[in-house]
Amino acid sequence: MMLQASKFGLLWLLFCGFSLPTPAAVDEKVYVAIESEGTVAVIDTASRQFLKRIDLVVDSHGEGGPRTPHNVQVAPDGSAVWVTANRAMHGGGQAEGHEGLGHGKVEAPADEVIIIDPATDSVTHRIPLAPGLHLAHVVVAPDGSRALATAQNESAIYEIDAREYRVIRKIQAPAGSQPHGLRFSTDGKQAFIALLGAKSLGVLDVASGTLRPVVVNGAPVQTAVTPDGKFALASLYDTRRIAVYEIATQTMRYVDLLGAARGPVQLYPTPDSRYVYVADQGHYLNQPDSEWVYKVDLQQLRTLWAIRAGNAPHGIVIDKAGQHAYVTNLTGNDLSIIDLRQDREVVRLPVGTEPNGISLWNRNSGGTP
């Protein structure tokens, strides 16, 4: 039977004098971007209890204002947690509440990449980029030297020095291509980018900044790379398929999801590169909310079965032991934990309104790609 966590039970424990584990005592944490609340939730995966909500609304200068975190990514060495955070825009690209008083109109504040220290779970750096970008996803290179962040509205990818926290360059994608999710190759020499508007898988040569679009049969939302470095994968929302791109031969094949699929979003391969689990969200483009996570066999190139999760499964990450998948349910406002040895949901935790991106930190093995 699935266990349902109780908010009231947690409050009762706190009232009775019980304390949650401190960050120093925790070996593994999951970070969840709570988009509609402007926070990042931190959860201990062992006790399945909340540790903290990191508020992104007020910055180090005391400046307030809505910040909507879309994606969160732990660096490979576990030293930092990266967040894409967007600022609310007012008509005409102006900041709300900054008109009149003799000052005219002031440009809206910039969308940011925010850095969190997992040792203290506090914000340490903010990298402002530009207003109205809709920063989608951010990833950190395997060697920790750089990060890439996609600006969907600008059709651009920002390359950031991950040690000095400064922008190195802006890589322009084709106009209207709307880059969204992305992942580095295992050697860090390439990045594979979901070009949502262009219906293409973007293959980025990181050294030169050259982006080569590969047309796919559908609109890709997120990508993944198998740990063995053999395949780059992309979720195709509108055609409800998974694109499987063999990196060495540059050949593309497809896997159809099962008939109940409504629109896949994030996907994550197992550590042995044999399977990929796909969060089937639906919800957009007049689709009803889905409740399924699909298991796809990458050797047989077929969908094996569906696992029931919450309403509109969106983000997914798998621990490095390959034992559990963690899935954010966008409209369910909760987090599903799936036991991969049984392929079933075992716990569902309330986390906040519109949980989106998700990533894992481990004291011994660092971050998940």
Largest sheet: 5 strands, mixed
How much beta, percentage-wise?
Answer: over 45%
How many β-strand stretches?
30
Fraction of residues in helices?
Answer: under 10%
Q: Report the radius of gyration as a whole number of Å.
A: 20 Å
Oligomerization state: single chain
CATH architecture verdict: 7 Propeller
State mean pLDDT (0 to 100 scale). Answer: 89
CATH topology (level 3) name? Methylamine Dehydrogenase, Chain H
Q: Indicate the low-confidence ranges by residue numbers.
A: 1-23, 89-106
Distance between the termini: 31 Å
Shape: globular
The level 1 CATH classification is Mainly Beta
Question: What class, by secondary structure content?
Answer: mainly beta
| Total domain modules | 1
Query: So how many helices?
Result: 1
Order the strands across the largest sheet as they lie in space: 1-28-27-26-25
- In CATH terms, the superfamily is YVTN repeat-like/Quinoprotein amine dehydrogenase
List the helices and strands and how they pair.
Elements: E1 3-4, H1 7-15, E2 28-34, E3 39-44, E4 49-55, E5 67-74, E6 81-87, E7 112-117, E8 122-128, E9 135-140, E10 146-151, E11 156-161, E12 166-172, E13 179-184, E14 190-195, E15 200-205, E16 210-215, E17 220-225, E18 231-236, E19 241-246, E20 251-256, E21 264-269, E22 275-282, E23 289-297, E24 302-308, E25 313-318, E26 324-329, E27 334-339, E28 344-350, E29 355-362, E30 366-367
Parallel strand pairs: 1-28
Antiparallel strand pairs: 2-3, 2-29, 3-4, 5-6, 6-7, 7-8, 9-10, 10-11, 11-12, 13-14, 14-15, 15-16, 17-18, 18-19, 19-20, 21-22, 22-23, 23-24, 25-26, 26-27, 27-28, 29-30
